[in-house]
């Protein structure tokens, strides 16, 4: 927790919260995912791995999980915890390069992209680049899931995606919305 807080102090625009997401939010993020059919899941901005733990626990053994983290401190922590997990691939890189990473692992699209990125605090141009890449990465059948502490960015997301679901997790501090989207 202290390490997360220190990274927030150093990089407030890219970390976006003072503490990692809680277990209740991680569980809520997994609700829309059909793990029995998923061949490829991508996670953006896992931070210290709150969602990653749930993804690793719930995914099928054959499902590939690509975990993309830009922050070197978080990336090293994730490597220590998840590097030996089968079909889990840790990538220190940028979410905007998701299509390159998918191609490297033999996929044209992902079934699900789970995002922990702080779109509210990211510069608009960075968010746009990531969302455009995400449209291509999920194709017509995949789903993009992200969480937000308010619905302030909902209309922005709807410029890129069609909203298929919205869940609310009250047990997270602060409470958070899980947005489920597909390409328009």
Overview of the structural elements:
- By secondary structure, the protein is α/β, with parallel strands linked by helices.
- It is 37% helix and 23% strand.
- The chain is built from eight helices and seven strands; from the N terminus they run αααβαβαβαβαβαββ.
- It has helices at 2-10, 12-15, 23-30, 50-58, 72-82, 98-104, 124-138, 154-158, and strands at 40-44, 64-69, 88-92, 112-115, 143-148, 161-169, 176-183.
- The chain has a seven-stranded mixed sheet, sandwiched between helices.
- Helix 4 (50-58) links the parallel strand 1 and strand 2.
Strand order of the largest sheet: 3-2-1-4-5-7-6
Q: Which whole number gives the mean pLDDT?
A: 90
Largest sheet: 7 strands, mixed
Residue share in β-strands: 15-25%
Q: How far from one another are the termini?
A: 38 Å
How large is the radius of gyration? 15 Å
Unreliable parts: 1-9, 11-20
Structural class by secondary-structure content: alpha/beta
Residues in helix, %: 25-40%
Tell me how many strands there are: 7
Shape, per Cα inertia axes: globular
How many DSSP helices?
8
The H/E string reads HHHEHEHEHEHEHEE
């Amino acid at each position: 927790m202290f390490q997360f807080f220190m990274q927030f102090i150093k990089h407030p625009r890219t970390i976006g919260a003072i503490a990692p997401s809680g277990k209740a939010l991680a569980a809520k993020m997994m609700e829309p995912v059909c793990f029995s059919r998923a061949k490829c899941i991508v996670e953006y901005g896992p931070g210290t791995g709150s969602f990653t733990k749930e993804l690793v626990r719930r995914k099928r053994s054959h499902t590939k999980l690509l975990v993309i983290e830009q922050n070197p401190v978080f990336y090293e922590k994730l490597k220590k915890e998840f590097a030996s997990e089968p079909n889990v691939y840790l990538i220190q890189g940028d979410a905007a390069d998701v299509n390159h990473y998918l191609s490297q692992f033999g996929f044209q699209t992902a079934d699900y992209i789970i995002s922990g990125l702080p779109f509210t605090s990211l510069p608009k141009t960075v968010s746009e680049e990531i969302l455009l890449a995400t449209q291509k990465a999920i194709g017509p059948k995949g789903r993009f899931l992200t969480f937000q502490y308010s619905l302030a960015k909902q209309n922005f997301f709807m410029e890129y995606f069609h909203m298929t679901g919205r869940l609310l997790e009250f047990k997270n501090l602060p409470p958070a919305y899980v947005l489920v989207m597909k390409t328009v």
